[in-house]
Amino acid sequence: MANAAHLELIKQGVEAWNHWRSQNLLVRPDLTGANLSGHVFEYANLDQANLAYANLEGADLRQANLFRACLQGANLRMADLIHAHLEAANLECANLEGADLYKTNLSQAKCHKANLSKAIIRRANLVGANLKATENSRTDFFQANMMRSNLYMANANKANLEGANLIEANLGLANFLEANLRKANLCRANLYRANLCRANPYEALLKGTTMPDGTIHD
Predict the structure, then answer these.
(1) What backbone phi and psi angles, to 5 degrees, belong to 4?
(2) N or C: which end of the chain has fewer CB within 10 A?
(3) Beta partners for 160?
(4) How far is CA 181 from the centre of its chain?
């Protein structure tokens, strides 16, 4: 359950919230399970905040600081996270269906089993992110930097990965049925036992890539 005082502060608006954070640097905000759907938190300082299982559906979190925040199991469906800072954030089992994460920083984020279906993740930074077993059906990863990310057993059915950087990414057992991999950089990536049925790898870079059958592409 959320801390009542913290919940009251966040509902007073970003200006009051950020001022309080600046005066209480050692306090980790506890907004566990809070219902904050539709609220505006643009530029909010939510660094290391506990938002586990919070309802943030449709919330405006543009350019918010969520560095190392806990969003495990949170509902972020249709949320606006453009340019947000989610480095090393915990998004395990979170629902981000249809969310807008354009140019969002998700480097080293923990997204195990998160639902990212239909999300817009164009040109985002996902370097080293854990996307194991995530749901990415029809997700738009256009030109996203996914170097060394882990998409083991992820479902990327009909996902758009055109121009994405997947160098050294782990894509083993992932489902890329009808996915767009045009001009993607898959150098030294692991595609062992991945499903590439009807995928479009036109002009993709495959030097040193472990292919679905276990062979190494030259």
Answers:
(1) -60, -40
(2) C
(3) 140, 180
(4) 19
- In whole angstroms, what is the distance from residue 155 CA to residue 10 CA? 35
Q: 161-195, pLDDT tens digit by residue?
A: 999 999 999 999 999 999 999 999 999 999 999 99
Q: How far apart are CA 129 and CA 108, in angstroms?
A: 4
pLDDT band at 1 (very low <50, low <70, confident <90, very high): confident
For residue 3, what are the CA distances in angstroms to 31, 43, 102, 133, 139? 6, 21, 31, 32, 35
- Residue 34 pLDDT > 90: yes
Q: By the 8 A CB rule, do 35 and 10 touch?
A: no
**DSSP bridge pairs for 216:** 210
Residue with tokens 């209480």: 24
Structure tokens at 60: 């405006």
pTM for the model stands at 0.96
CA–CA distance, 169 with 212 (Å, rounded to integer): 14
| Single-letter amino acid, residue 36 | L
Nearest to 116 by CA among 62, 85, 88, 78: 78
